[in-house]
Design a protein that fits this description.
Pfam families: ABC_tran. The chain has about 250 residues and is α/β, with parallel strands linked by helices. It is about 30% helix and about 30% strand. It has nine helices and twelve strands. The radius of gyration is 18 Å and the shape is globular.
C-alpha cells in the first residue's frame, strides 16, 4: 500500500500541495484528476520520491520513499512522466524496454536469458514485440506510449504511475492504450495510478478517483459516485451532462 501522510509542498510563498493524506491499495486502478495547476504532477513527483515534501512523507509498504536506494525504490514504483527523455536517438524498442530491468541487473548490467525472456514477455503483453528492432524515433505517439508502459512493466514494480499517458494520442491509439490498461489491471492485477485531465478516459478504465483542487484533497470516490453525486462539476466549477450508452458513461460540458 502507498500511504501519503499529510504532505505539503511550497515554492517560495505559494502552497502547491497542502496537507494531503491518502492511501492507494495494491491492485487498484486510480485516477488522480483536477483542474490545471491543481498540483497533480507535483503530487506524482512526491509519491515517486522525485520531489521532497516540506512536510509529511510517503511510504510504500511502510518504507519511506526518500530513505531507500534507487534500486529498491524502482522495485516499489515505476513512473512514466508526461515527457519521456529518449536521450539516445538510436535506442531500439528492445533496448529501451530492457532498461526497465535496471533494478535486477548486476554491476556490469548483464542481460541474462532470464532477463531477456521477461523483456520479451512484457513486449508481447503490450503488443509491441513486432517493433523490437525499430528505433524509438520512428514510432508513432501511441507506439511510444506502449513502449513506455512495457519498460515500466519490465521494472516489475509494485505500483505503476502514468502521468498524462493519453495526451496527444489520436482516438485509435487512446482506445488501444485504454484497453491495455484495463487488461493489465483487471486480468493481470497490476496496480496502476493515472494522472490525467481526460475525464472520459478515466471513466472508461473504470478507475477510482482521487480529486485534487487548489493543492488540496477535494474528494476520493468511485466512478459511480463521481457521476451520481456530480463531483466533477464541483471539482471543475462547471456543469456537465452525463450520457450513457452500452453501459458506458460519457461526460460532456453542459
Amino acid at each position: 500500500m502507498i500511504k501519503v501522510n499529510n504532505i505539503s509542498y511550497r515554492i517560495k510563498n505559494n502552497d502547491i500541495i497542502s496537507n494531503i493524506s491518502l492511501n492507494i491499495k495494491q491492485g487498484q486502478m486510480v485516477s488522480i484528476i483536477g483542474p490545471n495547476g491543481a498540483g497533480k504532477s507535483t503530487l506524482a513527483n512526491i509519491i515517486t520520491g522525485i520531489i521532497k515534501p516540506d512536510n509529511g512523507n510517503v511510504t510504500i509498504y511502510d518504507k519511506n520513499i526518500l530513505k531507500i536506494n534507487k534500486k529498491e525504490k524502482a522495485k516499489l514504483i515505476s513512473y512514466v512522466p508526461q515527457q519521456v527523455n529518449y536521450s539516445v536517438a538510436d535506442f531500439t524498442v528492445e533496448d529501451f524496454v530492457a532498461a526497465g530491468r535496471y533494478p535486477y541487473l548486476d554491476y556490469f548490467g548483464t542481460i541474462t536469458k532470464e532477463h531477456l525472456d521477461k523483456i520479451h514477455y512484457y513486449m508481447n503483453l503490450t503488443n509491441i514485440y513486432h517493433l523490437k528492432e525499430r528505433h524509438i524515433s520512428t514510432l508513432s505517439g501511441g507506439e511510444r506510449q506502449k513502449v513506455n508502459i512495457a519498460a515500466a512493466l519490465a521494472q516489475e514494480a509494485e505500483f505503476i504511475l502514468l502521468d498524462e499517458i493519453s495526451s496527444f494520442l489520436d482516438p485509435k491509439a487512446k482506445y488501444e492504450i485504454n484497453n491495455l490498461l484495463v487488461k493489465l489491471n483487471h486480468k493481470n492485477k497490476y496496480s496502476i495510478i493515472l494522472i490525467t485531465h481526460d475525464l472520459n478516459y478515466a471513466l472508461a478504465v473504470n478507475s477510482s478517483f482521487i480529486c485534487i483542487k487548489n493543492g488540496k484533497l477535494f474528494s476520493c470516490a468511485e466512478s459511480n459516485e463521481m457521476v451520481e453525486n456530480n463531483i466533477f462539476s464541483s471539482l471543475f466549477d462547471m456543469e456537465f451532462i452525463y450520457l450513457k450508452e452500452n453501459q458506458r458513461t460519457v461526460i460532456v460540458p453542459k
